[in-house]
Amino acid sequence: MLSKLIRKKQPALNSELIKRKELSQLEQLPSHISIIMDGNGRWATKRTLPRIAGHYEGMKTVKKITKFANEIGIKTLSLYAFSTENWRRPKKEVDYLMRLPEELLGKYLPELIEQNVRVTMIGNHELLPEHTKRAITNAIEETLHNDGLILNFAFNYGSRDEIVQSVKQIVNKVQQGSISSDEITEELVSSHLMTNELTEPDLLIRTSGEIRLSNFMLWQLAYTEFWFTDTLWPDFDESCLMDAIESYQKRNRKYGGLKQEEVN
Ligand code: FPP
């Protein structure tokens, strides 16, 4: 088994982290955190393991970060798990990634339910293999009434594709006369995106040292605070998340305006 090849990682939270976790709850927490989970392949290659071993380890990080984010009171965690461009990878790797929802959402579902986590998905699911769709649909249905953390997977997701689909829906409504073109507002566009039931992300994290958005939530990230780290996703842990949150808590979000004290 791959898991046997891979070194066990640090388990319990240390006391410093527990203190940081308590402190974080006193200050303003980001409500919605989005993560571009990057660096699984490099993590594996550095250990002369096959790339899929990095994805397996990355899946374990997903479990750890979900649990912790829920515990500290984050409301929504969006994870970029498979992009519309990831189909260009070798078939063996794509097949493995398509198995991960079963691996994660199948075996881990009882724990997610116990943690009161609600699973949602954004992306184009029509093109997914049946077994992948089944695992995703089942997790969504089984957690529908949970009201803890929303764990939102972006799977076969591309932001440009999402915007194109939204424009098509709006054009259809205008052509059918159910709305007029004057009614096309930012709110209307937002309400036609796949994220229409979610708040916009407050904080975006990308791991592995890459500094780009890779077609992720282009519309939704307009006023989001960004945080980049060189840490590879399989090495990302609770204390990395706290670093990102603490950085966010020091930011001055102005949404293009000014704070009262800056007006002269
Ligand atoms: C990017 O690393 C990561 C991915 C394309 C897959 C992310 C998947 C997981 C973290 C596992 C959990 C997923 C699901 C579906 C539940 P990369 O392969 O691009 O890394 P590299 O840039 O080092 O090659």
Automatic annotation (TrEMBL):
GO terms for molecular function: ditrans,polycis-undecaprenyl-diphosphate synthase [(2E,6E)-farnesyl-diphosphate specific] activity; magnesium ion binding; manganese ion binding. Pfam families: Prenyltransf. One of its GO terms (biological process) is polyprenol biosynthetic process. Substrate binds at residues 39-43, 51, 55, 83-85, 87, 89, 206, 212-214. The active site is at D38, N86. GO terms for cellular component: cytosol. Binds 2 magnesium ions per subunit. InterPro entries: UPP_synth-like (IPR001441), UPP_synth-like_CS (IPR018520), UPP_synth-like_sf (IPR036424). It comes from the Bacteria. Gene3D superfamilies: Decaprenyl diphosphate synthase-like. Its cofactor is Mg(2+). Keywords: Magnesium, Metal-binding, Transferase. Its EC number is 2.5.1.-. Mg(2+) binds at D38, E225. The keyword Hydrolase does not apply. Homodimer. Belongs to the UPP synthase family. Catalyzes the condensation of isopentenyl diphosphate (IPP) with allylic pyrophosphates generating different type of terpenoids. This is Isoprenyl transferase. It comes from Psychrobacillus glaciei. The lineage of its organism: Bacteria, Bacillati, Bacillota, Bacilli, Bacillales.
